[in-house]
Amino acid sequence: MTAARDAGRPAGFRAAPGLGARSGASRPPSGVGRHAGLWVTASSLSGLAVGLGVSVFQGDGIERPTLLISTLFANVVGVTAMVCSVWLFPRLRGRSGLLRFPLLVLALLSGAILGSLAVLGAYPLFIFREPRLAVGVIVLNSVLALVVGGVVLGYEEMRLRLHDALREMREVRLVEARLREEAARAELAALQARINPHFFFNTLNTIGALVEEDARTAEELLETFADLFRYVFDAADAAPVALRDEIAFTKGYLRIEQVRFGDRLRVAWDVAPDSVRVRVPGLVLQPLVENAVGHGLAPRARGGRIDVSTVLEDDVLRIDVVDDGVGLSGDGDGLIRDGHGLGNVAGRLRASYGGRAALALSAGPGGAGARARLTLPAASALPESAGRAP
Asked: Is 238 in contact with 206 (CB distance < 8 Å)?
């Protein structure tokens, strides 16, 4: 009928923030506490295992000081690796490798040395009596911290990379969904602009001719015409509408066409009551009926009949528009071309449902006329009171 108003144009969108950026955020406090608890538990168990092994190997029986010291040293290594991986590593992740690697090695060595000294400080006589063994323990803990820390940091790097990849994948999917939505909106706006201009001018001419002959009918047609425009502009929101609204809009269109065609245009409706609440994209039914009127019945002097039926079965909505007009001039699928009424409907179905919806054009019953069949999923339905009044 006309181009959509500026108010009906969909607003632009911005891509989700942080797309392609690397995530440097650490775990939430609750996650850090749980992580630390797991680390301390695992380190303590490994330390106890080592202490038991040493006691059995020495043959002196199980000694509590040996178990305690083994547990403390194991926690020195474990807690050092945990702090570097959970707290320090995410904060250094944005830095260059030349700076990050030495800092992590320094942190692991510092934690292992300071922790070992703290444990040995609880047994000062041991340091004075076995200084070489004390130094050996510090070196061993430092090496273990580097090995364990390297393994853990490698795991953290892979985990954060996987987290980044999943996050970016979600953002890309979100952008793709928004792009599909914007494409559907743009296609609907194009469809609004392409609604047959002949219908627009023919309606105005019909109303103009009736003003003097039948002013009441002319006024009714003008109100119906205004309602049609209002519905088209409302459909610019691109939100699904109840099928009852599509039917009401199409009946308004046919009411105007029947004034023009008179007895040459006959319409029959067979609408399943449970189908009227199903949500469908706006402006998908009227183009099918308009195609039947313009290409099926208008070329014939005696006109014809259009049957519109809806069936809801197994969560699939099927809409049939059948005419007994002149029939198809070629293969039905080849007549559904982009840029035309039926092609626009098929494109909107692809944008809204992917491959789960279809529009098919074929010969009518007994080979006479034509049948346009619209099949789409009916997963969502409006409450009984929802939707515009027909």
From this structure: no
Please classify residue 213 by burial: count the beta carbons closer than 10 Å to its beta carbon, then call 0-12 exposed, 13-18 middle and 19+ buried: exposed
Task: Report the C-alpha gap between 60 and 63 in whole angstroms.
Answer: 8
With b meaning 16 or more CB within 10 Å and e meaning fewer, what string describes 376-390?
A: bebeebbeeeebeee
Q: Are 341 and 267 in contact (CB under 8 A)?
A: no
Q: Which residue has the tokens 């559907």?
A: 184
Phi, psi torsion values for 24, nearest 5 degrees? -115, 5
CB 48 within 8 Å of CB 79: no
Q: 256-284: per-residue pLDDT in tens?
A: 999 889 899 999 999 999 999 999 988 88
The residue written with tokens 């945990």 in the block is 82
- Ranges of beta strands (E only) in 264-390 are 265-271, 279-280, 304-313, 316-323, 358-363, 370-377
Which pairs count as long-range contacts for 90-94, CB under 8 Å and 24+ apart, including other chains? 90/24, 90/25, 90/26, 90/156, 90/160, 91/24, 91/26, 93/22, 93/24, 93/160, 94/22, 94/24
Q: Are 280 and 273 in contact (CB under 8 A)?
A: no
Pairs from 25-29 (Cβ < 8 Å, separation ≥ 24): 25/90, 26/86, 26/87, 26/90, 26/91, 27/86
Reading the block at residue 370, the tokens are 């034509």
Distance CA 184, CA 180 (A): 6
Which domains, and CATH codes, for the chain? 29-173 (no CATH), 195-377 (3.30.565.10)
362-372 per-position pLDDT tens digit: 988 888 899 99
pLDDT in the model for residue 126: 60
Q: Cβ-count burial of 166 within 10 angstroms (0-12 exposed, 13-18 middle, 19+ buried)?
A: exposed
Question: Which two tokens mark 9?
Answer: 């144009």
In what helix (H) or strand (E) does residue 286 lie, and over which residues does it extend?
helix 286-291
Handedness of CA 208, 212, 213, 216 (dihedral sign): positive
pLDDT tens, 51-76? 777 666 666 666 677 778 778 888 88
Higher pLDDT, 17 or 352: 352
**Tell me: the pLDDT tens digits for 224-247?**
888 888 887 777 565 788 999 999
Structure tokens at 222: 């003008």
Is 332:361 a contact under the CB 8 Å cutoff?
yes
Task: Tell me the C-alpha to C-alpha distance, in Å, between residue 161 and each of 20, 28, 36, 97, 148.
Answer: 12, 18, 22, 15, 20
